[in-house]
Amino acid sequence: MERTAVKTTQKTYDGIAAEYSGSVDETIAGWVGEFEKKLLAMFVGMLPGETVLDLGCGNGKDAGFLGSKNLKVTGADFSRGMLNVARERNAGIPFVQADMRKLGFGAGKFSGVWANGCVYHVPKADFPQVLLEIRRVLKKNGIFSFNFKIGEGEGLEEKPRSFGGGERYYAYYGIEEMMVLLEKAELEFVVMVGYPKKIFGETIFHFWAQKT
Ligand SMILES: C[S@@+](CC[C@H](N)C(=O)[O-])C[C@H]1O[C@@H](n2cnc3c(N)ncnc32)[C@H](O)[C@@H]1O
After folding, report:
1. If you write DSSP's letter for every residue of 132-187 in order, what string do you get?
2. Pairing relationship of beta strands 154-157 and 168-171 according to DSSP bridges
3. CA distances from 10 to 13, 15, 101, 127, 167 (A)
């Protein structure tokens, strides 16, 4: 069932890629975009090196921002549709197809992994594996920076609140729950920042953790 749910999410993003990219552009045109630039700046400030993975990169807006900071950025996403949009918008940045549950990168390749608005698409049962993969591809002292939606439970949502363009899987976490998961994956919690307002009715927290 969960395997089907992930495939459904992937298929949905393939089908909505161009429209979804437009809806993201609209969202970040307001306060969200300004706020997320501050989160990105915090991430850049913590990096112990210059190689960065934008995981679940979508249309590549954050990969583009990170590239403009003279970082060596790679974007990864499991949706070929989203990757096509990302490539069109960001010439010069490599974008590769990858499922965050099994990344095809070598160990210790990245100084940082940025995962904006995407880890919540993975079923909870698979999330420990995602964290282990991220830890594996990080260098020592590398930074994992990501956000998630606060709440409980998980499941396929037919009309997601953010952009109702099709069925996608969502998993919700509590702050303590997330801290325990990081600890189990040997990623040391560094700091968290809550979004100042709800987005589409949802409370979102951004975390930074380090591979020590
Ligand atoms: C809500 S969008 C966010 C995109 C982008 N990070 C942003 O900030 O606009 C979620 C993205 O995560 C990708 N995604 C979801 N599950 C994934 C998985 N298991 N592995 C890789 N990418 C995934 C989707 O294809 C989609 O592009």
Report:
1. HHHHHHEEEEEEEEEEEEBSS-EEEESS-SS--SS-EEEE-B-HHHHHHHHHHTT-
2. antiparallel
3. 5, 9, 13, 16, 10
The parent domain of residue 105 ranges over: 2-210
Say how many domains are in the chain: 1
13 CA: nearest ligand 1 atom: 25
Q: Which two tokens stand for residue 40?
A: 């990105």
Using a 6 Å CB cutoff, which residues line ligand 1? 9, 13, 24, 56-58, 61-62, 77-79, 82, 99-101, 116-118, 121-122
Angle, in degrees to the nearest 10, between helices 2-28 and 80-89: 30
**129 C-alpha to center of ligand 1: Å?**
17
Q: Which of 83, 121, 124, 202 to mutate to test the pocket of ligand 1 (most atoms within 8 A of CB)?
A: 121
What is the residue-level pLDDT of the chain in tens, covering all 212 positions? 567 889 999 999 999 999 999 999 999 999 999 999 999 999 999 999 999 999 999 999 999 999 999 999 999 999 999 999 999 999 999 999 999 999 999 999 999 999 999 999 999 999 999 999 999 999 999 999 999 999 999 999 998 988 878 999 999 999 999 999 999 999 999 999 999 999 999 999 999 999 99
User: How far is Cα 96 from Cα 109, in angstroms, rounded to an integer?
Assistant: 15
Residue partners of 35: CB distance under 8 A and separation at least 6: 195, 196
